[in-house]
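Issue 218. Parser rejects a valid record. Input:
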Amino acid sequence: MAKKLWGGRFSKSTASLMDEFNASIDFDQKLYKYDIQGSIAHANMLAKQGIISQEDAQAIVTCLREIRKDIDDGNIQFSIEYEDIHMNIESILTERIGEAGKRLHTARSRNDQVAVDIRLYLKEEIDTITDLLHKLEETLVSLAQAHTQTVMPGYTHLQRAQPVTLAFYLMAYYQMFRRDIQRFEDCYKRTDCLPLGCGALAGTTYDTDREYLADQLHFSRLCENAMDAVSDRDFALEFLSDCSIAMMHLSRFCEELVVWSSAEFSFVSMDDAYSTGSSIMPQKKNPDIAELIRGKTGRTYGNMITLFTIMKSLTLAYNKDMQEDKPPIFDSAETLKASLSIFTNMLETLTVNKDKMEAAAKKGFTNATDAADYLVSKGLPFRECHEIIGKVVLFCETHGIAIEDLSLEDLQSFSPVFEEDVYEKIDIRNCIAAKKSYGSTSFESVEKMISDAKKELAGGVCL
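Output the parser choked on:
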């Protein structure tokens, strides 16, 4: 039975069932490189401040680097008897270099140790996620550029509403993912705060140099209150919220692709590399990747709620409940990264059926609003125009024709102000081109959106 590093106060060993239940090494071993990174900085700081000798610090740092390599190479077996990654590494260190290893934990606690590990981990994950979001944005812009003239119906309530372009549709999602990047970048600012050196909750009596630690670990500032630093996980909750919002955006896009790839729409076709078949129906080609991302979105929501629930009733400062913060954090990060990667690849290989899209835009009276606006241009109040076109649509539905198929005589039976120029005004492409408001679906407006997006991506900034 391994001797507990905190066992001096206890007269008997913990039960084996207690060891298993109490241990977190099966999941927090993921933090090993961050734990070693923090420990190296801490050892160097202790030596710099004269709290331990330079010789001891050098032995500690050298051994920690060797341990890091051994873990990387898969040559170390962790033990649940040492509970977590922090105590496992410390026990290996002490076993290898003796008394010097026992000096490493001077002026720190596992509470500030795990807090800095999680922050180091999240800073790296945020950088990776924002890179993946940028890659997705580049794919969206490239696809939009190829479809500035691809006309399709825009929807409300999943009912055909007004004609738009596919480029306009894609740039809507570009804006959503742009805000996701902004959220993660903002979360990074609150994560980039060093808790190491705060001790268990009240600081330490040793003359430490936390500014030195921040510099060594590349944190922009120090956590100002030791109790807050070790006992809150709001930065992690913010990260999980950002993951959930980004997954929600992916899920909405996936829902579009699932619907669009159905025979009822046939707007797009998924590449075979990102589709699956049926075990019983030979004809099937299923959009499983889109469906899986949609399903995994619920999983990220669950992770966020898990951590909210863990934290909701905790008194200050640290409580063991917080050991359970890591699985939802790790899972959401990995889920989002995998989803972004495969979704981007799937989007790059998408086949668009332009003719089907445009044919759908020409059905469903998507030019009805433009017909009403035409009457407004002739001097009629909008509400009166709305009613007239509503009657026109009802007549067309009854007779199975489109508004533009009506003769001028038929149109004038609803309002005498209709003239021959109405047909030009309600042409689907002219309906798109005529939009004048900022941010509209007009061809000119979408070209500007794409141009602005390219500038944003080239500069690596969110405007």
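Fixed in the parser; the record now loads. DSSP finds 20 helices and six strands in the chain.
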